[in-house]
Please model this.
Amino acid sequence: MTSIYLDNSATTKVREEVIAAMLPYLSEHCGNPSSLHGAGRRARQAVERARAQVAQLINAKPSEIYFSSGGTMSNNTAILGRADFIEQRNLGKHLITISIEHSSALSPAKQLRQRGWDVTILGVNQDGIVDLKELTKSIRPDTSIISVMWANNEIGSLQPVEQIAEIAGARNIHFHCDAVQAAGRIPIDVKKVQVDTLSLSGHKFYAPKGIGVLYVRDGVRVNPLLHGGGQERGLFPGTESVANIVGIGEAAYQISKELQINASHLRDLQKLLAQRLTRYGSVRITGPRDLDKRLPGHLSLVITGARGAELVEEASARDVFISSVSACSSGGGSPSHVLKAIGLDDDEALGALRISAGRFNTESDVRSAADTIAELISARTINLGAVLHHIGHQHLNSFASFQ
Model:
C-alpha cells in the first residue's frame, strides 16, 4: 500500500525542483560565501538570489530578508533581540501576546517575564481568534512589543493581523508575527500588512528542514542573540548553509507562482475531509468553521472517548500519516495548551486529531485516508446510531459552512 502523508502542518516533503537547485551546492559549488575567490563569489551570488526569491514571496525588499536556522530561531531573535534593544534604551518593558502562540514565541515571552517584563497573554474565542477590542484595551504607555501569529498550527485559525499591525503601528509599538504556517498557503504582503518582524520556516513550504527566514522591516532594530562573524549582517552569525538557502529560495519561487491554485486545491481537500469525517457524532471540529478564518487544507478535530495519539499510531500502521497535536509539543502525552485555551477540558483535548493536506495530495489520497480514519473512529464509537440521533440538527448546522 502506498503511504498517504497528511501531516503537512508538521513538515512538507522537499519538492523536486528544490532538490535539483540544491544539489550543485552540495557537490561542485562548495565555496564559502565569505571567500573572495570565484567559488566564494558563486556561493554569495546564490545566497543573494535566494534572498530576492524569498523577498518576492512576501513582497519585501531583499535587504529585509535574513536567513536563520528555522522558525524557532527567527521567533526567538525577533522577540528577545527586540527586547534587548528596548532594554538598552530604557524603554517600556510590556509585551502583549496570545494564549495559542507556538511555544517558540510563548517561551521567549515567558522568559522576558523572568527578566522583569510585564507580559499580557490574551485569551481567544472558541475559534481561536483574539478580540481586537481586548487587545487594544491591553495596550499601555509602556507597551513596546506585540507578538501574534498569523495562522495557528493546531486549529488552523487565522488572526486579524492586518488590523493588529494597524493598531500597533498607530502607537509605534513593534509588531512581530509568526507566519510559519501561513507561507505558501495564503498570500503574505508585508507592504499591506505592516509587520515589523515576521518569521518563516522553509520546511513548511517544500524546502528542507533547518532553514528559516526573519523579515525585518528596513529601519527596525533587532539585536542578535548570537555573536561571531558578520554573516547575515551580524543578526545570524555563522557560515551560511548555502544549499539550504538555495533550497528555500527555490521553494519560495515555486510556491509564489502557484499560490492561488494551491490554496483552491487545499480548500477542496479540506471540504472533502470535513464531509467524510464529521458524519460521526463523536467527532467535533475545533477552530473556525468559516473557511475565510481558517488555514487552507487544515482540519482539526476532537473525538469523544478516543485518544488522538492512539488513533495516530493506528492510522500510521495503515500507512496514513496524521497527527494529534503539534509535532513540537510532547507527542500527545499531555493536553495541548491551544485546545485548552479554546475551552476544551483535559479529556477532550487528548482526543485531538490534526489532518493537514499539502500540494502533493490528491482527491484520491484524501478519500482513501478519510475512509481509514473514519473506520478507526467508528470502532471507538459506542452505539453510534444513538449518538447521531442525539446530536441531530446541531451537528449538521456546525458542519454547514464546510459544504
About this structure: The longest helix spans residues 38-58. The domain at 16-257 is CATH 3.40.640.10 (Aspartate Aminotransferase; domain 2).
